[in-house]
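retry 2 of 3: previous attempt timed out while embedding zinc ion. Reduced batch size to 1 and resubmitted. Inputs unchanged:
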Amino acid sequence: MSDAKDEGTIGITVEFSGGLEMLFSNERKLSLTIPAKDEDGTRSNIAFLVRHLCDTVMKDPRKELFVLDDTVRPGILVLINDADWELEGEDKYEIEEGDNILFVSTLHGG
Amino acid sequence: MSDAKDEGTIGITVEFSGGLEMLFSNERKLSLTIPAKDEDGTRSNIAFLVRHLCDTVMKDPRKELFVLDDTVRPGILVLINDADWELEGEDKYEIEEGDNILFVSTLHGG
Amino acid sequence: PPQRRWPLEANEYKRYGRQLIMPEIGLQGQLRLKTASVLIVGVGGLGCPAAAYLVGAGVGKVGLVDGDTVEESNLHRQILHSTAKVNMTKVESAMIALHSLNPNVELVPHQGRLTPETALSTLQHYDIVLDCTDTPASRYLISDTCVLLGKPLVSASALRTDGQLMVLNNPPLPPGNTSGGPCYRCVFPKPPPAESVVTCGDGGILGPVVGTMGILQALEAIKVLTKQPSASSNDSAPADPPSLLIFSAYSNPMFRTIRLRTRKLKCAVCSAHATVTPEALNSGSMDYVQFCGTVDPVDAL
Amino acid sequence: PPQRRWPLEANEYKRYGRQLIMPEIGLQGQLRLKTASVLIVGVGGLGCPAAAYLVGAGVGKVGLVDGDTVEESNLHRQILHSTAKVNMTKVESAMIALHSLNPNVELVPHQGRLTPETALSTLQHYDIVLDCTDTPASRYLISDTCVLLGKPLVSASALRTDGQLMVLNNPPLPPGNTSGGPCYRCVFPKPPPAESVVTCGDGGILGPVVGTMGILQALEAIKVLTKQPSASSNDSAPADPPSLLIFSAYSNPMFRTIRLRTRKLKCAVCSAHATVTPEALNSGSMDYVQFCGTVDPVDAL
Ligand SMILES: [Zn+2]
Ligand SMILES: [Zn+2]
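retry 2 succeeded.
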């Protein structure tokens, strides 16, 4: 969906699993183009992406099922290129072109 | 296992599954450095890799369980970066640095 | 059976409620399952879990093909059978267990192995086929028959700690139509040398490995049977691109999905140049055992 | 039970022959299974297939914990139960089916839900624990207890068309030893808001999805129990790096493996700064239901 490469933007893939897709119009996989820098001119990180998803992508009004205290709510794992974000610097990880960011809600059913 | 990058060689990963690993000392995954060009000076392709595996890597004497008529025997799928080699030009596919080549023997048990 | 257009019975809402409420199934999906028929060829390590979950899900009719009897060495992985049923036929043993799980499902016994002479007449009464057998000869026979009859095929296999799964001939378009899904011969035009073929008896098999592949066959069958028509036409939405799921219990990652080729332009069964025909099958002139070869035990891997 | 050092009985060679001949199991692995004990907490959609394959494989002792009775709405996915067993306790129903599958396995019933007061005394008699439950409160309780007792934990869950699987506290080293595997609290330090938690009753569940996760729990337990000691020492070979298997039946690929973090330096249970202790658990001062919160049904997702 992204246009020809632009210095000011980054093309990434964002995925939702474990029921979170229901908050995003049942889309499990989005190709997104996000600004390369955030409001303060620093490189866009995961914290910025989460705000961006909430403000411009998520149509569902139940924001509290995705964010709490300005970060993803407990019970959501954030995976950066198939690794737990704890291994990558959590929400301070600076996003790179082509990154795959997966948000997984934990399941409890059995 | 490969040394610093060399113009004359290519570093690839070769994997075996479905029982073929038994022909390769029970190794399921090998990091290999192969010549970038074959005996005739053309770029190394899958046909060359198969010969190379037979001649220099495979210790098991039962070559006929891996090759037949100078190509992989029937019942072995060759997968280039997770796609059937039929999609990539079969044994004429020219190998690139970092490629993952997977040899899978079909299973018949149930 | 005729399509039923009235909704479910009261007890069916209760029994299937947990899958009915999902958008992927819904009432329409449950009705599709109820009017559907599935043939399971082989009631062993793959066929037992596949049958249990299809019968649990409320498929209308399930046929079971097998010529073997239950042996004690089956029980570690063939969970429909039990110690008391050793020496009973596998078909009979499975029917008892499946009937007690869900009496609403019609179960059809097909005692004996599938042969070229019986394949067409057996498979034609079903909507989809599960290949849960264990030899190359039966795999080619079942795939060829599915192409000739236009049935999708869910094919799985397992050995030692590895498993494989493919949905073939999906969509099941006539031979020569390149939009149809590839068949077993498209992927494996020639059978493997007989001395490279290892059976579960010779090579061993870990129960949960073959069990996982069998359950996934049930899942793929349910996905095919309940697929919702696309909004724009009466046809079903396009099938998933052909792929092979590879399972390796001791590798990391355990599962890999491989993109497969489309139909082969020279395939002996599903192409415009097909040489395998219903007449050839029915006449008994196709010798699958010969095609796949036999092996002197001394040479076996 | 005391370690048995003599080889198997004649009928055991026959019954387990197909897994015995594999190098990954072998006679030593079969003997390890025979002397091992597994506790399965929850005998529902996950616990049924997990128990069937562990009992099939010849684990010496299998304990079953559940406080529920069989309902008709369970049967599409809980394949050890059957129509005639509706209203029987799940533990009793499962024991009948498992005993008929393999009478050589000792089955131990634990009727009732696990509570903070019973968790330590129940889990301490087993070598490995399978979390097949369906609420956040039970998942934290089981994980905490496994860390305190030094037991590896195979945790799985499923909802709608998705499933998840983790092997936790593996290796099960004492709290504070950073070489131990992460626990459930390392991965999820805080419980999810109660209104975000969806049960299978509310959200639905596809039978083969939860079945696949349950069988994979059996597989992971067998892998942990039969792991061969490394050649250089008496310790077992290093455990696989911690990972989360994500299953999504309608995605392509269906399976993904995610690398997880190691033990969290400030984990409330498995770190040097642990605050969850055996005394706290036994005293009943830990309120897991309170910790995980409750929800007014109107607010539920
Ligand atoms: Zn074909
Ligand atoms: Zn921890």
